[in-house]
Structure formats: C-alpha cells, structure tokens
Amino acid sequence: MLKHLLLIQSLHTKRRIICCKAENLTSRRLWWVCSFNCHTGPDCVLQQSTERKGAPRNQVTKRHKRERSACQPILDCFDQQYSHELGNLWTSARAVLLDPPSWQYGVMLNRFATLTDIKHILQSQGFSSVLQQTGASTLLLNASSTVSKQQVEKASLFLPHSVSTCPPTSDDSHLHLDHTSHSLSQHPQSEPQSSSSLPRPLLQCYIHPSALRFPSQAHWPGQLKQYYLLNAASLLPVLALQVRDGEKVLDLCSAPGGKALAIMQTATPALLCCNEPDPHRRDWLAKTLESFLPHSLSSRVIVSSQDGRSFGQSEAGTYDKVLVDAPCSNDRSWLYSSNGQQGEQRLKERARLPGLQAQLLRSALSSVRPGGVVVYSTCTLSSSENHAVVEAVLNSCPEAEPEDLWEELVIPFSNHFTFSPAHPAHRHSQDDTVSSPRHKHGILVVPQPGRTWGPMFLCRIRRKK
Ligand SMILES: C[S@@+](CC[C@H](N)C(=O)[O-])C[C@H]1O[C@@H](n2cnc3c(N)ncnc32)[C@H](O)[C@@H]1O
C-alpha cells in the first residue's frame, strides 16, 4: 500500500521534479522521480521500457534534462497554415506548443490493478477526476451493461495481479502477437472470462490545473501498472466510441495502445482487436497491453498486424465499433523533430497523409456492421487531415452519417478543454468564426495556456446500412 508522498521540489524555473516516496505493505520502498519536461503518454511508456532495462528509477534521465528547441521548417509551416485556419487561437496554441514544461498530463487509472492509495495521493497533490467533474463517468456507467450492486461488490474483490501484494514473480506475457486478427479461433482453449468477474468498467482520469506531472511507473513482469499518463484529450475519441460490454471492437491504428487501454477501462468487449502494422510499434503495443491487462483477458484482447486499409475487405461488416486513431502530422512531436532535415522530410510525408487517412477511414466504415460506429481521430490541428478527410469520405460513402458530439462531449468538457470551431453561442471574436454545421464533421481540441490539452480532432460516423 502506498503511504507517503514526501516531496515536491523545483529544480529551476523551467523544470520541476516530483519525488514520491512510496512504501507498500510488503515494506518494499519505491522512489519515483520524474521531470515535467517530458512528453505525452506514449513517450512515457517508452521511458518505462527504458527503466525496465535497468535505468535507476530515482534519477532524472538525460533525455528529460535535454532542452528542446522547435524545428524551424515545421514551425514556419504551422505558422502559415494554422494562423489562417485558427486565427487568434493559433497565437496562444503556438505559445503552448513551444513551451513543453507547461504541458499538462492526465493520469488514467487502471481498473485491473489495486488502486488502494493512488487516488488519495493524487487528490492530496491537487489532482481531480476530469470525468466526475464533467458527469461523463455517469454516462459511461449508464452506457455499459448494467451491473448490480452485488456484482460490483463481488468484482471489487477480484484484484488480479495486485501491484501492492503480488511479488514480481511470474511472466505475464499473455497477449498473443498474431499475424492475423483471428487469434480467438487460434486459441480455442482460452475461454473468455465472464465480465461480471472483472472489476466494473470505470474510466477514471485525474488532471491537475498546472503542469504537475505524476511520475511514470516502471514495468515489473507479473505486475499490473496502476496508471497510464496521457494527454487527457485522448479520452474523447474513446468516450465517443461508447463501447458496451460484449461488443466487438477494432482499434485500427493501435500502437502504443493508450486508447486501447482506455477502451478496456470503459467496458469489457467480447473482442478488442488492436491492429498495428509497424513491427517495432507493435512490440511496444504488446508491452503496453501486457503491463496493464490481466492474463484472464488474453482471449478478448488480441494484437493484429494488418495494413489497416485492408480490413474493410478482409473483415467486412464484422465489428460493432471501430476506432481510427490515424497516423497524422502529430503537431507536438513533429515540432520537436531532431533537425531541419527530418522536419523537411516530414513535411514531404505530410502531403501524403490525407490520402492514407481517407483510405483507413473508408476501410473502417466497411469493417463496421450496419448500425455500427466509427470514430476517426488525429492529434494534429491540420484541417486537411481532419475535416477535409471526413468530408471527402462522407462524399463518397452515402451510407455513412456523421454524428453531432456537441451536447455529448463539447459542452461537458468545455470547462477543461478549448474546442474549435467555437459554437456560435460561445464565440468570442471574429477569428473564431466557423459556420456552425461544420462541427457535425468533427470537433477539435486546441491547446491553450492553463488548459494545454490537445491537439485532438475527432468525428463519429455511423454506418446506416
Ligand atoms: C496516432 S498513432 C496511434 C496511437 C494509438 N491509438 C494510441 O492511442 O496509443 C497511429 C498509428 O497508426 C499506425 N499506422 C500507420 N500506417 C498504418 C496503416 N496503414 N494501417 C494501420 N495503422 C497504421 C502507426 O504505425 C501508428 O502506430
């Protein structure tokens, strides 16, 4: 059990360190140290896998100490495009993107791990639950299959691979790395565990009003991590997906797996197929899943390696829900390209992305059953990878219908996230002017000072027939 949180200290104005001293029931002492000059959830997992190879946990790694400067060709391109597309909103978004120490991080709790003291520690540090504040957690509980009070009590006793009580002994590599997405039939011996014996679905994400970053956890084979660090806006595509217990879900572009983990917090699908064609990123994905999900889910959560563009043909009409978290410009990461040459190379690739994104979205719409839902998302502000892709696909797919997320997500989350285009009723300046029907084709979270979440674009599309 975690008992003490000892120290928060400031190293210098641009960099702050949290030192958490934690003590568990087995008297094992852990020191977690982490810098704020770090990155998004996926990069944090990279850091964890470095730690796994033996880097001491109580030192700030060199990588964190490195000052980062923006890549000029990328910044010039963004300035030109986004000042035109976002107006004044770009000026403040630009300031955030150029100041990584100001970036906020969400702490998504893992319902499959023992979380005895973690909430208390977070709250004592000033973190609060973003979903409780928005009422979205209630929506989620209602959306998932009804769980009786008795089932909840029974489920709370089921604490697989408890972090605080299980020694790091057995190898927990339970998630199959398949070359197709048919591992259910390849592993008929593993009976899917009934969802009532699992902890109840509950997506919990804690955020802090300032750029206070909770330390990331090291991987220990046989133990489940208690939380995953992420950009809290990444939860929106998962919430928009509205996964119910027992559904078949495809995460078409899955590595490193942050949204797959979030899906598994919201419900217990009959199948979650996590697809990733890049072998290196697929390994990373498998490690993420292994670190957070219990062995008992191995027949429900599978890893596949197809090119996402082929799913529409190979698995037509198969899934209830499909997430297309598409490869994109990734503004935060691209801005810190290692040098001008890499930046120029990326800008060349950028022109090809909308074509690939549209192919992936069409494939997703074919792989979902009639009446099913596809959520398309990116982490770029670029309208040519966002609204333009959605519009192009909708124009060629008469059976696809976009759904308005204004009431469901924009209004509940507007206290925490800044959305663009602004709804006419919320418009503050001429620069925010975008015709109101356009938000039917997606919503965009724009990072702003003090609410640095995003960039995140998402659109939900239902297949009518
Ligand atoms: C934005 S990342 C996904 C992030 C992930 N959903 C998460 O939340 O951790 C996009 C992923 O798409 C993968 N990708 C690239 N081309 C693809 C393709 N043709 N089909 C499927 N995935 C692809 C990339 O390798 C990358 O891992």
Concise overview:
With 465 residues, the protein is an alpha+beta fold.
Fold and architecture overview:
The protein is an alpha+beta fold. It has 18 helices and 16 strands. The strands form 3 sheets. Strands 8, 9, 10, 11, 12, 13, 14, 15 and 16 form a 9-stranded mixed sheet that branches. α3 packs across α15 and α16 packs across α17. The longest helix has 15 residues. The termini are far apart. 46% of the residues are buried. S-adenosylmethionine binds next to α11.
Descriptors:
34% helix; 16 strands; 4-stranded antiparallel beta sheet; single chain; 465 residues
Distance between the termini: 51 Å
State the low-pLDDT regions, or none.
Answer: 1-65, 141-192, 422-437
Number of helices: 18
Classify the secondary structure makeup into a structural class: alpha+beta
The dominant shape is: globular
**What composes the largest sheet?**
9 strands, mixed
Beta fraction = 15-25%
CA-based gyration radius: 21 Å
Number of distinct beta strands? 16
Q: Which distinct ligands sit in these coordinates?
A: S-adenosylmethionine
Helical coverage, percent range:
25-40%
Question: Please, what is the average pLDDT?
Answer: 76
Topology record:
Layout: E1 7-12, E2 15-23, E3 29-35, H1 41-52, H2 62-65, H3 72-86, H4 88-97, E4 106-109, H5 118-124, E5 128-129, H6 130-134, H7 136-143, H8 149-157, H9 183-186, E6 205-207, E7 227-230, H10 235-241, E8 248-251, H11 258-266, E9 271-275, H12 279-292, E10 301-304, H13 311-314, E11 319-325, H14 331-334, H15 340-350, H16 353-367, E12 368-378, H17 387-396, E13 400-403, H18 406-413, E14 419-420, E15 443-445, E16 456-463
Parallel strand pairs: 8-9, 8-11, 9-10, 11-12
Antiparallel strand pairs: 1-2, 2-3, 4-6, 4-7, 5-6, 12-16, 13-16, 14-15, 15-16
Helix pairs in contact: 3-4, 3-15, 10-11, 16-17
The protein binds S-adenosylmethionine.
